[in-house]
Structures are given as C-alpha cells and as structure tokens.
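To whoever picks this up:

The nightly regression suite flagged ATP/GTP-binding protein as changed. Nothing in the input moved, so I suspect the structure step. Input below, exactly as stored in the fixture:
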Amino acid sequence: MSPRRNRPRGGVSNGKGPAAEGRRSIGLESTESWRGEEWVVRRVSGGAAGKPYRCPGCDQLLPPGTPHVVAWQRDGDVDDRRHWHGPCWSARDRRAARVRRSRNAPRY
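Regenerated output under the current build:
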C-alpha cells in the first residue's frame, strides 16, 4: 500500500494562470474583481465563526462554527461586509438576487 498523497496533483500554484486571474492575495485576504469592482475576500475557518449570519447567495442561515467567506467592496464600509457560504461565493455569477415575497403578495 502506498502512502497517502497530501499535496495537490496539479503541482504547486504560483498565483498565475486562469485560476488566479482577477485575484490578488494580501496575506489572509485576497482581492477579486467582480462586476467591475474590487472586492476584498477573507476565508473564515469554522472555529473563528462565532455568530449566525445570513448568506446573500442562497438566503440560508450560516450557523456558528461554519467555515465561510466574508466579502466586501474595496471602498466599502465595515457594515457592507457580507458572509457567504464558500460554494455560494464561487457561484455568485450564476446566482441572482431574488426578491423575497410572502405567499399572498402580488406578483407584478
């Protein structure tokens, strides 16, 4: 039996290529361009997440202790930070902000 492989098969990423396009790393934070604006993105581990948040991508609750992504615009305020599920952040181009209505609300 061979030992377990703990490194990626594709080799070490050097921060170049199509996967890193539009992304600059700044320590634990990275900067990504999305919809023509610069976004600061921080990955939060499960142990560091102490409060519940609502994901803007799927409108589901992020319970405390769940690893997630915190993103805000480069020029934005602290109150503009949004907490996303990792897959929701990755699929943000395929997700649209949906208007939440009650069952009896008219659909114009």
